[in-house]
Amino acid sequence: MMDGREIRLQRLFGDGKVVIIAADHGMFDGPLPGLEDLPATVAGINPAVDAVLLAPGMLRHCGPFFAAPRRPLAVIRLNWNSVYCFQWGYRAAVSADCYRAEEAFREGMDVALVSLTLHTGSEERDARNVTIFSCLVAEVHALGLPVIGEYFPSGHLEMSPQELHEDVRIGSRIAAELGADAIKTFYTHDFAAVTSTCPVPVLGLGAEKLPSPLDALRLAAAEVAAGAGGVVFGRNALQVPDPHAFQAALLEVVKHRRRPGASRRGPPSDLGGIRHARAAPPESRPPALTLELYETLAPDLRAGREGWLREQVLPALQTQADVVFDRAVYRRRDVEAAVAALEGLGVDALVVVCLTYSPSQFALPALQRAGLPIIVWNTQELWAVDDSFSGQEMVNNHGVHGTQDLGNVLLRSGVPFHYVTSHLRDGLAELGDCLVAAAATQRLRRARLGLLGYPSPVWATSPSTPHNLPLPSAASGRRSRSRNTWSAPPVPPPRPSLLWSPTIALSMR
Is 204 helix (H, G, I), strand (E, B) or coil? Predict the structure, then answer.
């Protein structure tokens, strides 16, 4: 029979890997940039993450976020340690028993986090830290709650990679032996040796703020690949242009093993990214563009259009692609931030759907930099207009005004794209063909081609070397007169001086 601790652990690790957003920095650093108004910061966290880490005194201020249905668990840090106070130059790593487990439980704690630092240079201090850690673990377990034990090395910034690894490997095992149900700690150069020798899940932390969101996604992917049970990211998940979009990407990387960095640019959060191939279904992040003015004039419109997208459009697209939808965007900074946060997820195309009219200028900069095939899909919920056509139906079905505007702006800006007009009742044949073509384009761009063959001295009619073999350039192409699409340039026939010419065979089905 499962007890309370096992039930809560199952809720935390239900689908195998966990994503926790850390927002407890103020307990050691004060108000960091982006976390000055913590209730507002927490309110902006993607509710699909598994848990949020807070200091004990802040849970009451952020209560509405956790009180809503199907929201993340509340992880509360119970002890304080001077090892985190980098701004004051502390080195002693003194732990303080500052909050009782029962008090945090009354505040709404679902999971406790208790930190441990060893190898501090003082046997007495190490023993004191172990005493605080083990006593708090026992208190939490007595309440039927699980404990995440955080092992944090003392002086990690001055350690060599090997020293850090050994400290983390030993300290993580000690924390587990003292009763922790999971471990949160640093990623090391041999992290698999840490995860494989620890009897409980090991969660990789984000540590210092990394240069870009892509770097943070790559770190998460590396931690999971080395056997981590999930990640705990703070500044790298909060001090970004669009935390909500980045956290959606982080969930994809950790839970679904999406590979960061597979393409030069990844999808914006709601500009659909498609990875297509029949052998491996495409990945789609369908676009949803709306107008910011509607947030005031018709506050329920976006939610209604998103509902139609989720209930009807996305299931239909699943026959052509792997589909992941986050939320509609209606401001330029949202699209730009989403592109920056989700770049490199390895999609093959961007599919753009206008749920309502949407000004194109705010989406243009992100689409110009995307570096992926773009498909503008002009579709709507209504099949036909008849005598019963109402004003509300007009409001719900006027995205065509946004797609034609976007097509005009892309054409005038020289951005290649394909425009598809269809209703779900028409089928998705044309859209599916576009996805197959996009997949072929992306695979050719990533392909490594080897030239086989040699000049034939017997058949040669003119001086030639293998380097003269004409190959089409991935960047070359010409614009069709009939539509705004790209076609490959003609490939000249092989030179007669070549005994053998290479052939590329593509199989898409």
Answer: strand
